[in-house]
Write a structure and sequence with these properties.
CATH architecture of the largest domain: 3-Layer(bba) Sandwich
Helix content: 25-40%
Radius of gyration: 24 Å
Shape: globular
Structural class: alpha/beta
Number of strands: 22
Distance between the termini: 73 Å
């Protein structure tokens, strides 16, 4: 182990994921000397085995399914086949390009990239241990930012073996489609990746502890996804949990316990997707007095500061929602605060997206949440089945729902399940940030024929004068 003395910076960021690297880039843009420390690969979970690789596979699964039914619209394709290893090579190329790009952006913004495992030995000093055992000490005169993200939760009785019992990291790198896939947990990761391999030919079963899939989202939207899974031959078991599994010959047999009693399910691969946990341990935070809650999240205020002056936290490690775009926004806020500028976490809403088929996206309050907060609610819904553009691309499942305050017509929430919901929701986020009313959305001329018209029509429906459906 070597010690080359202490290197001085204005700020040190621990973590090079979607929270950490934007923090470092923005600090560099603001003229501060900054180091960004990453123990694995820059880009974090999102770029390496989360958001990006999973969406690449999702896009391929969607294309594969559409190609299978192309004859319905007069396009005849020869025999289709999957080359999963080639698909993985393509996906890994995208990941490599993006992670290399992150390093390039850090360098272009005068941020120093440091590889190794970081630990705070003082509130202004970070010790970094490289893979070869060498040690660097980095001093931050203005602040240390914790952006260590989150890690997959493992369940007792279902330890990962990296091959048959796996998490999301392994699921995006399978080189063979399992004949039978059992997913434990019907949240975002489980539904997204489960539907990918279902489209590729796997027999899918999802076991969810709660009463329905995609907890936390609008239940009507979640039901559309559940119907799609069942339509393709999948099974959804709710109110149940997997208590263990064992190998029997070439298969895995999982034990399921729930409302319907005990049963056994046979599968080839078992994907555990019950959520993520914050990576707040092993950083030396407790010794410095940084407050961490019972779930492991670092407590922060509206400018990303922890309970210890000079130490900040952004992204998954600082609390839900555990979303890449929320982490990036917090990182930008944190950088500006450290640089002495006025900034804060003052956004109205953070969009949430599920890349299932159909996609689900949401901003603001659900109908139930709005009523719980005392609003008299009106709801406008417009089905994609009534939209010409949706028909032309053969994606008519789902709807757009606008939740408004009946007294003022102010938009309280927007929920979309259907084609390109992930793209359409940005208009909804802007509407909430601008304190828009349903009249604003209804009066805005939307181009025809587009999927975006569904938001205009749903807003009109909330006001009682939709054009292309019968108003309630």
């Amino acid at each position: 182990m070597t010690d080359g003395g202490v290197e001085d910076f204005d700020a040190v960021v621990i973590g090079g994921g979607p929270g950490g690297y934007p923090t470092a880039i923005r600090l560099g843009q603001l003229g501060l000397r900054v180091a960004c420390v990453e123990e694995a690969e820059f880009g974090g979970v999102c770029l390496n085995w989360g958001c990006i690789p999973s969406k690449a596979l999702i896009a391929n699964a969607h294309l594969y399914e559409k190609a299978q039914s192309a004859a319905e619209v007069g396009i005849r394709i020869g025999e289709l086949s999957l080359d999963v290893p080639a698909m993985q090579t393509w996906k890994n190329g995208i990941v490599k390009k993006l992670t290399t790009g992150v390093r390039g952006l850090l360098k272009a913004n005068q941020a120093t990239a440091v590889s190794g495992t970081a630990r705070l030995i003082a509130k202004d000093t970070v010790e970094v241990t490289a893979k070869d055992g060498s040690v660097r000490r980095l001093r931050a005169s203005r602040g240390v930012v914790i952006a260590t993200g989150s890690a997959t939760i493992e369940l007792p009785g279902l330890p990962f073996d990296g091959e048959r019992v796996i998490g999301a990291r392994e699921a995006v790198s399978l080189t063979k489609v399992p004949e039978r896939l059992l997913v434990v947990g019907g949240g975002v990761i489980g539904c997204e990746l489960g539907m990918v391999y279902q489209k590729f030919g796997a027999q899918l079963t999802i076991v969810e502890l709660g009463p329905g899939l995609l907890p936390g989202l609008d239940p009507e939207c979640a039901k559309v996804v559940e119907r799609a899974i069942k339509k393709h031959g999948g099974e959804v078991i709710t109110g149940s949990k997997v208590t263990g599994c064992e190998r029997r010959g070439d298969a895995l047999v999982a034990k399921v316990s729930g409302e319907a009693g005990e049963r056994e399910l046979t599968c080839d691969v078992l994907l555990v997707s019950v959520g993520m946990r914050p990576r707040s341990q092993g950083l030396g935070l407790e010794a410095l007095g940084v407050e961490i809650d019972a779930r492991g999240f670092i407590r922060t205020n509206d400018v990303c500061q922890t309970s210890v002056p000079g130490i900040y936290a952004v992204g998954d490690v600082s609390g839900p929602p555990m979303l890449a775009h929320k982490a990036t926004k917090e990182g930008e806020v944190c950088a500006e605060v450290i640089a002495g500028k006025r900034a804060g976490k003052d956004w109205v809403t953070v969009p949430s997206i599920v890349f299932t088929d159909p996609e689900v996206a949401a901003v603001g309050l659900t109908e139930a949440e709005a009523k719980e907060q005392g609003y008299e609610v009106r709801v406008g819904k417009f089905p994609f089945a009534a939209l010409g553009r949706a028909m032309s691309i053969r994606e008519t499942d789902g709807f757009t729902k606008v939740v408004i305050d009946a007294a003022t017509s102010r938009v309280l929430g927007i929920h979309i399940v259907g084609p390109s919901a992930s793209d359409l929701i940005s208009e909804g986020a802007l509407a909430l940030e601008m304190v828009a009313t349903a009249d604003d959305l209804a009066l805005t001329v939307h181009p025809h024929p587009t999927l975006g018209e569904a938001l205009m029509e749903a807003s009109q429906a909330a006001l009682g004068h939709a054009i292309h459906i019968v108003n309630r």
